[in-house]
Amino acid sequence: MELVIGLKYIAVALLIGLGALGTAIGFGTLGGKFLESAARQPELAPSLQGKMFIVAGLIDAIAMIGVAIGLYMLFALAPFAS
Amino acid sequence: MASGELTSKDYITHHLTNWAVGEGFWTWHVDTLVWSVLMGLVFIFSFRAVAKKANAGVPTKWQCAVEMVVEFIDGIVKGTFHGKNPVIAPLALTIFVWVLLMNLLDLIPVDFIPMLAQQVGAAMGHDPHHVYMKIVPTTDLNMTVALALGVFILMIYYSIKMKGIGGFIKELTTQPFNTPWLYWFNFILEVVALLAKPLSLALRLFGNMYAGELIFILIAMTGIYQIFGLHFVWAAFHLLVIPLQAFIFTMLTVVYLSMAHEHH
Questions:
Q1: CB hemisphere CA count around B118 (13 angstroms)
Q2: How far is Cα B122 from Cα B102, in angstroms, rounded to an integer?
Q3: Which of A24, B31, B219, B264 is placed for a possible disulfide with B230 were both Cys, Cβ 3.0 to 4.6 Å?
């Protein structure tokens, strides 16, 4: 039983951690490109910023799904560490 | 819970349980239904009150706020939707304001309304430990999937209406490889892409809101002095996530419906 509990924690850690890794790289690239383009054409910066938030929401999606599933597994799924 | 002592696990699972009536397939999450309908009514009545007393010369502050929201949605729809459909803009406005209002319920402190519900339940003779109430409807997967299903049905309806059933099937089988040998392969890819859209809409909103609410609950367990600082920090971050998620849901709805309207 302890084995299953331990595996559950490892599973949650992998779920949240790997999701965070991909998201961080994605956001870094996105932000960098936005800053580059805003420096090249400052008049487009507001419009580009709106589009950046849209893409940011898309990047965030799968990672957040992973976080939600991970937290659900941790707190609402048996077995629990007593 | 038979011991009468509230453990931390009990506290968390208590706050993560919906007020469910019935069992199996016919479980109704009454708290989700009540709060979502309540927020819908708040939206309808407040916007309608502005529309009836609209004063072009001297707008009141609330009228200005409503006008800002309507203009914002108008800009989005004009910029993104390239078809002719009078339903899209009101749909986008409804989705945006409704999801925003439901998400804003997450900022109410975690224990306020559940405790009130517990008092009411105890007064009515139920065991207070088994009175559950989750006030944020969008943390319930049922609510977000219902919203996404509505969008999905509209997507398919407008695809078939604009392109005809033949055109719709043709679009599903001839992208991306336009050879009859690969129609089946295209179909599988396109169906997966088609199903991924409402699924990702639902899960994105659910995941963000559920994680936010869970962290509020976890902070509430850390102790009375830590709460003030941590709650403030997380609420400030969550204030960004709430309108962002409503905006992304609206934006993607408009984009998907625009894709359903276009011919090739």
A1: 13
A2: 27
A3: B219
Q: Is A60 on the interface with B (CB under 8 A)?
A: yes
A82 domain-assigned: no
Q: Which residue has the tokens 């910023």?
A: A49
Contact A75 B208 (CB under 8 A): no
From residue B46, how far is each of B4, B33, B67, B147 by CA, in Å?
Answer: 44, 20, 12, 22
Instruction: Give the tens place of pLDDT for each residue, A6-59.
Output: 999 999 999 999 999 999 999 999 999 999 999 999 998 888 888 888 888 888
Residue among A65, A66, A75 minimizing CB distance to B16 = A75
For A64, which of B12, B16, B207 is closest by C-beta distance? B207
CATH number at residue A24: 1.20.20.10
Neighbours of A49 (CB within 10 A): 11
A60 annotated active-site: yes
Residues of B with Cβ-Cβ distance to A59 under 8 angstroms: none
Residue tagged 């048996």 (tokens) = A78
Residue ranges of the alpha helices (H) in chain A?
2-40, 45-76
Say if the Cβ atoms of A65 and B204 lie within 8 Å: yes
Which domain, by its residues, includes A60?
Answer: 2-76
